[in-house]
Specification:
The complex is a heterotrimer of chains A (340), B (639) and C (204). By secondary structure, chain A is of the alpha+beta class. Chain A has helices spanning 7-12, 18-26, 42-75, 89-119, 229-240, 249-260, 263-266, 300-313, 328-338; strands spanning 128-135, 138-142, 150-152, 154-158, 163-169, 174-178, 182-187, 193-197, 203-209, 221-227, 290-291, 296-297. Chain A has two domains: 32-82 and 120-241, Immunoglobulin-like (Sandwich); 249-337, Immunoglobulin-like (Sandwich). Chain A is elongated. The chains are: A alpha+beta (340), B mainly alpha (639), C mainly alpha (204). The structure holds heme-A (2 copies), dinuclear copper ion and copper (II) ion.
Chain lengths: 340, 639, 204
């Protein structure tokens, strides 16, 4: 890729100011997986660079203001202190107009440079295309290059390559945000927006909806998994496959419940008769990082709980409690977990 | 018109004359006069008390929110409850607290500062208050019924439109704000006309106090900004209730239209909020620096330029919506530029302190607190002005930190400074300095503990408007600190409240001019007599009360008798004519009730009730403006 | 009495030349009209914003608004400002009959305008209604809102006529006439803007 966001790498080494250090330490920097200060993407690097630039400018100007203030307060203690006339026009126009103007002009210039850089991914055209559709409150993910590859709340990208992401919404405004990789782009009803991802550091990056979209705006998260090309290709092809798992007896029964039960009316499992589109595609639910877009870990217990009554886990979400007979539930869960 | 026929010479100390004036202007306290008063001082006090009450309510909302956010995965509040809380908190703080509070200050102070006896339209003034009271009550009422707006204070469509928001919640929002808009618009018009036509003779534009300039600038912004919001809410209501398609992308509507219109209002609005606060700072400083604010022309210029530029930056609230780069670079430039006038004022105040001899009293402490916090908030603002960075932090807690630093730091600190500074004038009582200082330190420390960590949470990727958050993202500690800070802050504000109540109850009686202030309000009694000034002040300079000529004139001048006030020319404040001021009346109250009926009728879809309300409104207006029967001589008829 | 008389003659001079400055009422009405105008500007702005977002305009299935009736309406409303001016001039001279006559004529013209608008609606509504699409919502929304202003203006004029018949106005007391006139002119001017944007521009 090109320069890692200009001043980005340059300024990232410098030490933050005490107050901030303190808080960063307090917070244990554990943030990591969803933080603008642990940039791994080409886009986020630039904004992180901007942040430290702004930070130091602010420290400087703040110091200036505090000095003047302190001086004024200290001055009054001296017996000699007298009220002085005059309009201080010089001081106001230098400190209040000239200097700020210069600073702002420079900052604006740098900002504009980064804005243009953010407009298009490194290396002009993208190697991978992804289509993301926002739903209250989950993310539908398509890989147009392999039309069959459909999943939810999880996005895999190859490292070292530019990925173009087209953003649509099925209902209200949402916003696509992966702090470590890329600044936000909103999903606007009646409009298709575009953004891109680029990173050369393999890893899992948590993203989250950043435009208030109702009750479960808090749990409309997703995971971006950046991995080497080979793994990525393998994953996409896996997503594209209809499921033909060899099922145990229990899982067979679960499959039956799924297909005959209400599930099929809302969920799709490719390779079965279930082809609903109200909810996330479940063809590979067994391998997902979470259920309910970050609402709960993906394990047997939570799966069972989710199916029985997802409203207790994610109040207000669009999946009603499911009247699955107690003896069927384990089978159903077993079946879902087999979908990898 | 010559003064001789209007003002009979008499020493301004003549007891009978003063008694007569008091007679003509005073409103004997009674139930009737409670509803019929047109005294700008009573109305101003009411604005402030009502806004204060709303501040406590909206603040309580915030405290509950903070309690929920103290720990991850908390379940004190359901998502619906949280959504209503943060929406009401924001909406109320912006519309029902900040603006009305400053309208209260303006109502009480503008006529006094310009040496007038009342606002230009005293009855409209009363009307405006009642409308504000009713609108606010409706909105908070909905919260007590659990049906409060829940779409965020800028209520983006389609979330706030059908089918995603059924129920009455957002009808309360749209109708409530439309209702309130009536009050705000009328108040703004009243301020402008008062400042243009009722200034004391001799107060040419270059002698107008900065606070009055600020109020006028604010009012002009209201005149041009509010229609955008009203249109927005009108269209939202029509969409929701009568199946219009303004915001419906499936039928040719546009969801971004809402955002544009909202922020065309919304950005000027943030200056509508902060500008009077800056005015208060300019009014408080001279008393405690023992000299006038420096660079008066530049300070005025700053106010004017802010009022204008603020209409050219709204898109900086839409930096992530995928608009063309070109428009982004333009609005980014404008947003960066608007910093300069604020810089001028900050440096101007600092220069004033440097060239004066500072006397530290509670009001001054809050001004210092304002400078420290507002500057920090301003810096983050400038960061947002740079589109690339904004796209990263927008809609995160970093933004929440920014706007609390500018809203609380920039508006509430001066608000409190103003309360302490003018309390003697408002109530005639002095407050306890010790209590005041305790309050300051608690508020200052509490404030920064609450909102500084939000910068960090935001940078760590915490989005705003989340009712809870997972525990493994490094957001726990910042949030815990914020919550603790919020409680400290609340106690500090409680001390402010106690300080005020204590002053009113037990405070020592205040002198007329306890601080040695420079503006005319200090030339009146504490609290001012109903007629404000027995003698119409003559202004010779920017600091009339530091000017012997004005002081002596106030004592030795001639009393302006009767329920009358002086009208002067717009620019150089020359005497034009003497006006008969309107008497107290019930009709403004009745009219406001009429509108209340209309709003409630629309809210519940009882359109015939709304119709009935409209009849009340029309009827009372006709009554209100009905000219008195006049003999042909009085009216003047050609024969 | 002599003092009053002197003041009176002056007052009349004022009324025509206003050496003693604009009144508070004048400023109040001007500012009110300004913010109202801003509202209409925002509304027409929204109209064009949505128009330039959509392709065909008016949308498929809705033909361009008919002009004949609307031109006639314009011909009714625009001139209706003249009688008001004439009336105001009159009352400044203390000629009450001119005030009454002028207001009456305006009242008639205004009512005729509203009548025409109702007629025009009755035909449009056959083709598309307020709820058809965004275009229709804007079309009916804006025109109705203006019609509402005309109605309010007429109420004011009618109210003024009533007051003048009772005889409250003369060359010394006629500010309400002036204020009403300002409002009426405003309603007039806004109509021109609406006519150009909603009726003419789609044909260009
Ligand atoms: C009192 C209210 C107030 C004030 C005064 C300001 C002041 C400013 N604001 Fe703020 N703003 C809000 C209230 C306010 N804001 C609110 C409520 C929101 C959020 C709305 C929402 O989403 O809910 C918001 C959001 C907001 C955004 C959108 C953020 C986002 O949602 O992504 C932006 C972007 O440009 C912005 C910019 C600015 C700027 C440039 C200033 C400038 O005016 C600041 C100027 C002042 C200074 C800079 C300090 C003093 C100057 C000096 C000491 C001179 C030297 C300084 C330098 C050289 C830098 N603000
Ligand atoms: C003038 C404006 C103003 C003010 C003063 C405040 C004050 C406070 N705000 Fe406010 N806030 C907004 C304007 C304001 N806010 C806006 C516009 C939003 C955006 C809403 C949205 O997203 O739509 C917002 C959002 C907002 C959020 C983000 C919600 C979210 O995104 O999920 C939070 C979270 O902590 C918060 C907290 C607070 C706190 C703790 C205070 C404290 O300062 C409050 C302290 C005040 C009191 C406690 C009441 C007064 C107390 C007394 C008189 C003493 C008696 C009381 C006690 C002893 C408790 N606010
Ligand atoms: Cu989707 Cu918030
Ligand atoms: Cu803004």
């Amino acid at each position: 890729m090109r320069r890692r966001g200009g001043h980005g790498t340059g300024t990232r080494r410098v030490r933050p100011a005490p107050a901030l250090v303190l808080l960063l330490l307090l917070a244990g920097c554990s943030g990591g997986s969803q933080s603008t200060l642990h940039a791994s993407g080409a886009g986020a690097r630039r904004t992180e660079g901007l942040w430290w630039l702004f930070f130091w400018i602010s420290v400087a100007v703040f110091a200036e203001v505090m000095t003047l203030l302190g001086w004024a307060l200290w001055r009054r203690r001296r017996a000699t202190a007298r009220v002085r006339g005059g309009d201080a026009l010089g001081m106001v126009s230098v400190l209040g107009v000239a200097i700020p103007f210069v600073i702002l002009a420079v900052v604006y210039g740098i900002g504009l440079h980064d804005l243009n850089a953010l407009a298009s991914p490194p290396g002009k055209n993208a190697a991978v295309n992804i289509e993301v559709v926002g739903h209250r409150w989950w993310w539908e993910v398509h890989y147009p290059d392999q039309p069959a590859a459909v999943t939810a709340n999880e996005i895999h990208i190859p490292i070292g390559e530019s990925v173009r992401v087209r953003l649509r919404t099925a209902d209200v405004q949402h916003s696509f945000w992966v702090p470590n990789l890329m600044p936000k782009t909103d999903l606007i009803a009646g409009k298709v927006n575009e953004t891109w991802l680029y990173t050369d550091e393999a890893g899992n990056y948590r993203g989250q909806c950043a435009e208030y979209c109702g009750q479960q705006h808090a749990f409309m998260a997703f995971l971006v998994v950046a991995e080497p090309r080979a793994q990525f290709d393998a994953w996409v092809t896996a997503q594209a496959q209809p499921t033909t798992p060899t099922l145990t007896a229990a899982q067979q029964r679960g499959k039956a419940v799924f297909e005959q039960g209400s599930c099929a009316s809302c969920h799709t499992v490719r390779g079965t008769s279930a082809d609903g589109t109200v909810g996330p595609d479940l063809t590979t639910i067994g391998s997902r990082w979470s259920i309910g877009a970050g609402a709960a870990p993906n394990d047997a217990g939570h799966l069972g709980g989710w199916i029985a009554n997802s409203q207790t886990i994610k109040p207000g979400n669009a999946m009603p409690p499911q009247p699955v007979a107690a003896q069927d539930l384990p089978d159903l869960v077993a079946y879902l977990q087999s979908l990898k | 018109m010559s003064a001789s026929t209007e003002e009979r010479p008499s020493p301004s100390t003549d007891p009978q004359e003063l008694a007569r004036l008091e007679q003509e202007w005073g409103e004997r306290p009674s139930v009737h006069s409670f509803f019929s008063t047109v005294d700008h001082k009573r109305i101003g006090r009411r604005y402030m008390i009502t806004a204060g009450a709303f501040f406590i309510l909206a603040g309580m909302d915030a405290m509950v929110m903070r309690t929920q956010l103290a720990r991850p995965n908390a379940s004190i509040l359901s998502p619906e409850e949280y959504d209503q809380l943060f929406t009401m908190h924001g909406t109320a703080m912006i519309f029902l607290v900040a603006t009305p509070m400053f309208f209260g200050f303006g109502n009480f102070l503008v006529p006094l500062m310009i040496g007038a006896r009342d606002m230009a339209f005293p009855r409209l003034n009363a009307f405006g208050y009642w409308v504000f009271l009713f609108a606010g009550s409706i909105m908070f009422g909905s919260q007590f019924l659990g049906k409060a707006p829940d779409g965020g204070w800028f209520g983006y469509v389609p979330l706030t439109d059908r089918p995603y928001s059924l129920g009455i919640n957002l009808d309360v929002y749209s109708l409530g704000l439309l209702f309130l808009g009536v009050s705000t618009t009328i108040g703004a018009i009243n301020f402008i006309v008062t400042a243009l036509k009722l200034r004391a003779p001799g107060m040419s534009l270059n002698r107008v106090p900065l606070f009055v300039w600020a109020i006028v600038g604010t009012s002009f912004m209201v005149i041009f900004a509010l229609p955008a919001l009203n249109l927005d809410n009108a269209m939202l209501f029509l969409d929701r209730r009568f199946g219009a398609h303004f915001f419906d992308p499936h039928d040719g509507g546009s969801t971004l239209l809402w955002q544009h219109l909202f922020w065309i209002f919304g950005h000027p609005d943030v200056y509508i909020i902060v500008m009077p606060a800056l005015g208060i700072v300019s009014a408080v400083l001279p008393a405690f620096c023992r000299r006038g604010v420096v660079a008066y022309p530049l300070m005025v210029l700053a106010i004017v330029t802010i009022s204008i530029i603020s209409f050219g930056v709204w898109v900086h609230h839409m930096f992530a919506t995928g608009l063309p780069q070109l428009s982004y670079s333009f609005f980014s430039a404008a947003s960066t530029l608007i910093t300069i006038p604020s810089g001028i004022q900050i440096i101007g105040w600092l220069a004033t302190m440097l060239r004066g001899r500072i006397v530290v009293r509670t009001p001054f402490l809050f001004v210092v607190g304002f400078i420290v916090t507002f500057v920090l908030g301003g810096f983050t603002g400038v960061m947002f002005a740079i589109t690339a960075f904004d796209q990263q932090v927008t809609d995160s807690y970093f933004v929440v930190a920014h706007f609390h630093y500018v809203l609380f730091g920039g508006a509430v600190f001066p608000m409190i400074a103003g309360v302490y500074y003018w309390l003697p004038k408002f109530t005639g009582k002095m407050f306890s300095e010790r209590l005041g200082r305790w309050a300051f330190w608690l508020v200052f420390i509490g404030f920064n503990t609450t909102f500084f960590p939000m910068h960090v949470a935001g940078l760590f990727g915490m989005p705003r408007r989340v009712y809870t958050y997972p525990g493994d993202l490094g957001w726990n500690i910042p949030n815990l600190i914020s919550t603790i800070g919020a409680y400290v802050l609340a106690v500090g504000l409680l001390l402010v409240l106690i300080g005020v109540i204590h002053a009113i109850r037990r405070g020592a009686p205040a002198e007329d001019d306890p601080w040695g202030g420079d503006t005319l309000e200090w030339g009146t009694a504490s609290p001012p007599k109903p007629y404000n000034f027995a003698v119409v002040p003559l202004v010779h300079s920017l600091h009339p009360m530091w000017d012997e000529r004005t002081r002596t004139a106030l004592v030795e001048g001639t009393i302006l008798t009767g329920h009358r006030a002086v009208q002067t020319s717009e620019l150089d404040g020359q005497h034009e004519r003497v006006l008969e001021m309107p008497e107290p009346a019930l009709v403004p109250f009745v009219n406001a009730v009429g509108i209340l009926v209309v709003v409630l009728g629309l809210l519940w879809g009882w359109y015939w009730v709304a119709g009935a309300g409209a009849v009340i409104v029309a009827g009372s207006l006709a009554r209100w403006l009905w000219p008195p029967e006049r003999t042909p001589e009085e009216a003047g008829v050609a024969r | 009495m002599t003092a009053v008389a002197k003041e009176a003659t002056q007052a009349q001079a004022l009324a025509t030349e206003m050496p003693s400055g604009r009144t508070t009422g004048w400023w109040g009405m001007i500012l009110f009209v300004t913010t109202e105008a801003t509202f209409f500007a925002a509304a027409l702005g929204s109209y064009f914003y949505i128009r330039f977002q959509s392709g065909q305009w008016p949308p498929p299935g809705i033909e361009d608004p008919k002009l004949t009736k609307v031109l006639f309406m314009t011909a009714l409303l625009l001139p209706s400002s003249l009688p008001v001016m004439w009336a105001e001039r009159g009352i400044r001279k203390g000629q009450r009959w001119r005030l009454r006559a002028g207001l009456a004529i305006t009242l008639v013209l205004g009512l005729a305008f509203l009548g025409m608008q109702v007629w025009e609606y009755s035909e449009d509504l056959k083709k598309h209604t307020f709820t058809t699409d965004a275009y229709s919502s804007l079309f009916y929304g804006i025109t109705t809102f203006h019609g509402f202003h005309v109605a309010v203006g007429l109420l004011m004029v009618g109210w003024l006529l009533a007051a003048s018949l009772r005889g409250s106005f003369g060359y010394r007391r006629h500010e309400r006439v002036r204020l009403t006139a300002i409002y009426w002119h405003f309603v007039d001017v806004v109509w021109v803007a609406i006519f150009l944007s909603l009726y003419l521009s789609p044909r260009l």
